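Field reference: sequence -> structure
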Amino acid sequence: MPSDEHPPAPASLRERRRAAAAREIVDAAEHHIGEHGPSALSLRAVARSLGMTVQALYHYFPNRDALVTALITKSYEDLADALQAAVDSAVDDPSTPRLVMVAEAYRRWGIAHPERFQLLYGTPLRYYAAPAEGPTTQAVRRMGAIFQRELFRGFGTAQLCAADIPALSSPLREHLERLPANAQGDLPPPAVALFMSAWGHLHGLVVLEVFGHTSFLGDHQAEIFRTSVRIMLKDIHGRIPGAAAD
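Structure field:
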């Protein structure tokens, strides 16, 4: 039976050129951030590096916030790609939980791209506000979904509902139950609390390292990170009924 759906029309030459120019601008902005840090982002400097005027750049990004949004979105997407690559390359090794592999990929990306990591998690850029439910939100949810899937892999809803955590207040429980399905809303409230605890734990360790606060550990930072994540994972899984030992 023939389908009523038609494939999307291919992008026109003009659209392809515009998309290529926008990618080139984002790449140049990334390079500028890598050299000078996120707070020093200058549209004039980015335009100059490409041999174009600021007015010409505005044809692709109408203001600084539009370019910042593109930069943040791309950084989250690149980070999510790195996490997914770690999952895809994982082997069935019971001695190394997949969540540990994902966490280590997160750490490696942050260390390899400290300025972009700072753009995502450092001091917010002055006067910038990400668009509500915009591309940055969708990109960070994709990344979060990878962590969520690997943290609770193999557990059913009934198990997550019965997780052993301190009692949640009624207002907090009601708030968590109203979250969108793609923003941890598909998890029962106890699992959301565990997810946020895990996220804060491993992310905090990476922040400390990327910003140089654990340099006293020298070459042992990777081992400390892996050990800490494994301890955290064992504690969280120990709170879920029927969990196997990690």
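Note: Residues 85 and 242 are 29 Å apart (CA to CA).
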